Amino acid sequence: ITTKTYQIMKDQIDNNRELRSKIKDDVFIKQQLSLLSPGIDNSEKRFLVHEFTRSAMLLPDFNEYQRLSPLINALVNEVDTNDLLGCSTALEMLADIASYKQENINYFESIGLLQKIYKLFQTTKEDTDMGITHTACIRFFGYLSTTDSNALEKFPIFTSDVFDAIYHFDSLDPLRRKLAFETFAVVTKTIGAKRFLSSENCICFY
């Protein structure tokens, strides 16, 4: 192991130790909650708080869902089409969290987040003004499927749309085509996904 690699590993361990300490710190949590005032003018401060929440939930041993529920709910509440940029940024962060481990997905499912985003995916599909949000929804479910292969079966409209886009790629604009192939590559890379896609339950091409 090189000195540089060792230092990187040490820094990561130190960062994780600091994160765990902050999660247990009531004063710190209250301070973070105080920074969550609504409105676009305060979005920068809110997303700094959300970055802490994201980092905490990416700890390998994170299980403090109830303790951090006010902070998690605040991030979830950013999934609001009244602020398209904030909504898309929140979806990217939530995708990162969901793709990290099944426990995060289970928690999101328990609070209704997955169905909320699935509904958003469907309602933004035909709305050209919601393109940035729809793209973020596609990426969310794409990365979700890397950890939970059942996502392809649980969210069939998403799965069907991915394969429909691949099948009709020549009719898509360059950006949409790139997204289609990137998403296809993501959703088909796990063994579980490949098993589902080869099963009779898969109706992707119909």
From TrEMBL:
Single GO biological process annotation from the record: proteasome assembly
GO cellular component terms given for this protein: cytosol
Cleavable signal peptide: none
Residues in coiled coil: none
Family: Belongs to the proteasome subunit S5B/HSM3 family.
Protein name, entry field: 26S proteasome non-ATPase regulatory subunit 5
Organism whose genome encodes this protein: Meloidogyne incognita (Southern root-knot nematode worm)
